[in-house]
Amino acid sequence: MQDKNFDSLASKFAKNIYGTPKGEIRAAVVWRDITEALSHFNGQKLRILDAGGGFGFFSQKLAKLGHQVTLCDISAEMLTLARAQIGEYDAKHSCQLDITLVHAPIQALTSSEYGQFDLVLCHAVAEWLSDAETTLAALARLVAPNGLFSLMFYNKEAMRFHSLISGNFDYVAADFKVKKKVGLTPTHPLYIDDVKHWLDKWQMQLVSQSGVRVIHDYLKTHQPANFDFQQLLNMELTYSLHPSYIALGRYVHFIAKWRAD
Description:
Oligomer: single chain
Distance between the termini: 37 Å
Low-confidence stretches: none
Largest sheet: 7 strands, mixed
Strand order of the largest sheet: 3-2-1-4-5-7-6
């Protein structure tokens, strides 16, 4: 089994992930979490790794705050998009974002070559990996002793629930196995409890957890005439942190640190 490479879907991926209402919700929830986590570092300039970061949506936002970022992705096309966007920003603002692009699978990242990082991001990557546990364990070792690990993954239980309330019972009964997968449907969604178990095994503890899209994906097709997206976004930000709704998130975002003991 091979890990997913988005070369053939780079433009579609970039548009679908952050150029849509659901993408805006995803970005808002995760950025809220990251911004709060950055206060842990008291304003210092950080070394940040964006592992499997695609065209660098969060890499660019963090670099604009003055941090030093390494963006790694297996897709050359994704990094081409990143390079173009970074170049446009640099030219417009007469400055240079501190982003190093690395074209490689994230499994190739080692502390001997790249050192350790204050913050490691791995967003929407684990669910495309044939061996997520081993790969994520290696990424955790790249987190500095006082650093943080920001991990967002596709939630298998939410995937099941969405299919159930949509009446796709055969799909659920077949454990989500179909003859032809849609290009952007994750191949290896994860269970929340499994990921928590992995973190515990690696001697890491959760700093924060949130559900990403706990409402949007369950909305009825026809909305009230006064439906307002900003109101939905505000509700998503509120209920993404509610203990009863985190597990409903299409994605789940964990931020973890090394256990003190």
